[in-house]
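Running this now, will post back.
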Amino acid sequence: MSFLDSPIARCEAAHTMVLTDQTQGQCGLEHACPAGRACPLDGCFATHSGLSETVLPAPAKARRVRRG
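Update: finished.
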């Protein structure tokens, strides 16, 4: 059994539960919201996520596979 200790809310636009301890921009990226979409949870998100760019892992580089 696991417990989620973060604040969550139902997003009717994405039809899913979202974490509101992140920024609205981070949520939009996570759920692939199109630019300009009116967020039904506008004002419910944290202004700062608590994560800085220095602690986030670098994105994995795609490896090219050579086919002969």
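Residues 18 and 30 are 9 Å apart (CA to CA). More later if anyone needs it.
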